[in-house]
Input
Amino acid sequence: MSRLRAPSHTTPRAPVRAHSDPDPILQRIYATIDSIPRGCIATYGQIAREAHLPGRARLVGRVLRELPSGSELAWHRVINASGRISVTGESARAQRRLLAREGVCTDARGRISLARFGWRAD
DNA sequence: ACTCTGACCCAAA
DNA sequence: ATTTGGGCCAGAG
Output
């Protein structure tokens, strides 16, 4: 069970719920994703920038990959910069289903229109 | 202390 | 549209 940024010389913390994790970087990423409105999507890079972590889109991806089970974070509202879903297999179907439930649809080629559904932060 | 691998991104070719 | 090369950085082996 891997942990984010756990110092090797300390015992890993017990798992905590997403919104109570004390790591400020995680807090900012979670908070930013939380502010994506229902029916909108944002890109990994956009989340990184909004969370004051410019250029760290991959970090956002890792954070979502390691999302604690039971988290209520709207992970499905995050897609890549080319308008595609980045997860594969079962997760991709789940993401498409969750988005469809919010009215976010993919085109014939599996792409989501950033122009139509992209979140523009204030 | 390496190298490899990513839920990534962007400019250039 | 696709490829390439560079940036990013934490885990895993």
Q: What stands out?
A: The radius of gyration of chain A is 15 Å. Residues 43-45, 48, 55-65, 75, 78-82, 85-88, 91-92, 95 of chain A lie near DNA strand B (CB under 10 Å from a C1'). Chain A has a mean pLDDT of 85. The helical segments of chain A are 24-34, 44-50, 57-65, 89-101, 114-117.
